[in-house]
Write a structure and sequence with these properties.
With 159 residues, the protein is an alpha+beta fold. It has 3 helices and 5 strands. A hairpin with a 4-residue loop joins strand 1 (6-19) and strand 2 (24-38). It is globular and about 55 Å long. It starts with 5 loop residues before the first strand and ends in a 31-residue tail after the last helix.
């Protein structure tokens, strides 16, 4: 990062959205905020200072799909962070690499997490997306040897 404040774009993307027609996966944008001023002297950016190009949609990995990888990618905007993005149309079906190239965005940071289906995801489909929750197969059977944090439970009492 630089001493001076530069403009950045933050993108949240699901890297594992099912694409039924081709029996594969694709990217799906969940959130895009542009024109975020940020410098190395700041500990965090103020999202309210940016321009929301695509409203936030919560993660919603469908039932029967494997874990989804969600990434937050921070891009420095063109012309060393001085190029403002205005009136940019962004589709949820955008491709991250293409979006970055079209708008002269340079990667500056990334973070990711994984998520899998549970009953609360169906509420996102019904209440936020106004869709019937999809079902790509039988929900995984809960394993008694895996804890809620995803770690294997030690079966040896005195170990």
């Amino acid at each position: 990062f630089h001493e001076d404040s530069r403009l950045h774009t933050l993108v949240m993307v699901d890297l594992d959205e099912p694409l039924e027609t081709q029996q594969t996966f694709r990217e799906q944008f969940h959130w895009v905020v542009a024109n975020l001023p940020f410098s190395k002297s700041q500990s965090k950016a103020n999202i309210a200072e940016g321009l929301t190009l695509l409203p936030y949609v919560p993660p919603h990995p469908a039932r029967g799909t494997p874990n989804h990888r969600y990434a937050f990618v921070l891009f420095e905007q063109g012309e060393n962070g001085s190029n403002r993005l205005e009136s940019v149309e962004v589709s949820r079906d955008s491709v991250l690499r293409t979006f970055a190239a079209q708008h002269d965005l340079r990667p500056a940071g990334i973070s990711f997490f994984r998520a899998s289906w549970n009953e609360s995801v169906d509420n996102v489909y019904r209440d936020v997306l106004h869709q019937t929750p999809p079902n790509y197969g039988v929900a995984p059977t809960p394993r008694s040897d895996i804890g809620p944090d995803g770690r294997k439970i030690n079966v040896y009492e005195n170990y």
